[in-house]
Request: fold
Amino acid sequence: MYILTNGKLITRDPAAKGYYEHGAVVFEGTKIVEVGDAAALAAKYPQAEKIDARGGVIMPAFINAHTHIYSALARGLSIAGNNPTNFFEVLDGTWWAIDRRLTLEGTRASADALYIDCIKQGVTTIFDHHASYCEIPGSLFQIAESAKKFGIRSCLCYEVSDRDGEEKCLEAIQENADWITYCKEHNDPMLAAMFGGHALFTISDKTFDRMVEANNGRTGYHIHVSEGMNDVYDSLQNYGRRPVQRLQDHGILGDKTILGHCIHVNTAEMEIIQQTDTMVVNNPESNMSNAVGICPVLQLYKRGILLGMGTDAYTNDMLESIKVALCSQRSQNCLPNVGWCEVTDMLFKNNARIGAKYFPDELGVLKAGAAADIIVMDYKPFTPFSDENIDGHMIFGMTGRQCQTTIAAGKILMKDRELVGIDEEAENAHILEAAKKLWGSLNHREY
Reply:
C-alpha cells in the first residue's frame, strides 16, 4: 500500500470534493483505496509507504484517444526530395514511406520511444492506430510487449488499406483479427483491441466487407474519416456517397467506433454520427500542420456527440494539444469566448468515457475504486488555485514536461523524473540504432 501525499490534489470527481489544498491518495494493487486530506489519511494508513509529491499538483493521469506509434522515429527526420504541397503528398512522401520500411524491430523501437515519452508527460492510456507495411504479421503483438514492459494501458489496432496491394491488405486484416482474438482470450485489463482502417480513399467496398467479416461484431472500428478532402472527393466520385454514409452502409459505425479527425463532415453526416452514437476524436495540431483544416468541434459538441482528444502523434503532450485546440476553435469561429468547455470536456471528461468503452477500470478520476492512474505535476501557482480554476492553470501554466511522477494501475513508472525499473540509456541506445536503420533506408545513406 502507498500514500501519495504532500501536494495540492484535484480529483475530477463530480460526485465528491474536487479539491484538497493538502491532499493525498492511498492506493494498493491497481486501484485507489481512498482520497482525502493528507493528515487524516496519514493517520488512518500509517503502514502505507509514502511517496512525496513535493508540493506539486496531484491529479488523474492523461488519456490519448488517437496516436500513431509508427511515427515515433520520425522526430528530426528529413527525407531527401520530399517537399509535400498537399495532404496526399504528406501521406505518400512521409508516412507511407516510413511505414513501408518499418520492420518488427523498428516497430518495437517506435513503441518503446512513444511509451517513454508518454510516461514523462503523464499519459498512462493510449489508443494507437498502427501501420508498418514492411512487416505486418506480429506487429501489434510486438507493441503489446512494449506496452507490458513500460506499463502503459493500450488499445491497439492495425491500419487496413488497399494502398500497397491485396496481399498486404489481407495481412493487415488478419493482424487485426488475430489481435482481437488474443485480447478476448487473455482478458488483460491493460490491453484492448479495435479494428483499424486508414482513410476511406484507400479502402474499397470489398475491403470494408472483408474487415466486417473478420471482425464479426467483436469490437469497434478505429478509422480516419474526412481528414482531407481526398476522402470526400473519392467517396462522391467513386461511390456516390459521402464518407460517413459509406461507413454507415458497411456497418462500421456504432458506440464503440472512433472516427479520427472528421474535419470535412457536413450536417447530414453529423446527424448520422449522432444517431449511431459513434465517437469522434479531434487532433488539432496534426490537422493544422497538415493544412487540412480544423474540426467543427463546436457543432459536433452541440449535437451531443462523444468527442475526445488525441494527438495523431504530432506530440505526446496532451496539455500542448488542449492549448492548440482552444486557440484553433476561437480562431476558426472568430470568437474569443468559445471553445473552453468543449476542449476541457474533450480531454478531462470525454477521453475517460472513451476509455470506459474498452477498459474495465474507471479512468480519469481520483476516487476509491478507480484505477490508480495518478500523476504529479511540478507546478507552484502564484495566483489563487482550486478546482474552480484548475483548467485555466493547466492551459496557461502547465506543460506535459512538468510531470514529475507517473503511476499507472498502481505501478510507479516514474518518480521525481526518474524512470523506475527501466534503463533509459540502454533503451535510448537501441531506439537510436533502429532510427538510424530506418533513416538510412529512407535516404540511402548512413547516419
About this structure: The mean pLDDT is 97. The first helix runs from residue 38 to 44. The longest strand covers residues 19-28. Residues 254 and 276 are 5 Å apart (CA to CA).
